Amino acid sequence: ITLDVRLSDRISNTVDEGIDVGIRVGFMRDSRFVARKAADMRLPIVAAPRLIKKVGVPANIDALSSLPVTVALDINTGRPWPWHFKAGRQWTP
Question: Which BP terms in the Gene Ontology apply to this protein (predicted)?
Answer without folding.
Answer: DNA-templated transcription
